[in-house]
């Protein structure tokens, strides 16, 4: 499963300096502007100090990356917990080969979890859309054709709006992430459900081009059983976008409450225990330095290392947490 590379393959970002003694591991993540890409990039230099060379490949479809890890064709990946749930059930993106997905899901082990992107429900400030109920009859980008985002967006909208359903009450548009942002700017749809770290420069630039409004989920919804069930089913957390985060936001005087995606770093059960230990140690022992280097990492909470984790911990990762005196939930052992 592990492999050595003396040269960089096209499209691969090698952050760590390769040495003859270093163990080289492939690590796939998402977009470079999201924490699904920022976490592996930030982790790589510190893994190198533990003699583990991470070959980071970004811009991947994480549901596919997870399958590659489970099959032993990739060492590490950032994984959306809902994808693991779907894999165990042979559903969603894995319905084409359900039995294989179910079988391979048992090979996955986690190193840690983290809170990733806040779900930004964005409309143009002059669109006339000021509440979730105003989405009725509108065209709404909810996420890419594959992956977990569309379900998370649709679920959040249903709860926040009091029951609006994609395909019935509004048109749910599915496009790749890059095409979606451009499509929103070109007026192809009315609402852009953007998944970004809080304070994303890309969203700040968008708001400066033309004023935006970000819809907030009210406290009554957050306290409801429906919201609790939505969080359980879609494996989401809660995020607050502070007031005045984006320069061109029309309602910047108020803090925005919304959902946030949860992610984890997974590997194969066959990964060497010492390597899993080194990787977990490299991440958490250097989390403060990573936050100083990239402010978007600030929402990663070291007091919650098992956020979103829904597969057993790798024994090497478990050893690190035990040494730190961190209690591990029984279902993750």
Automatic annotation (TrEMBL):
This is C4-dicarboxylate ABC transporter substrate-binding protein. Residues 1-22 form the signal peptide. It comes from Marinobacterium nitratireducens. Keywords: Signal. Pfam families: NMT1_3. InterPro entries: TRAP_TAXI. Gene3D superfamilies: Periplasmic binding protein-like II.
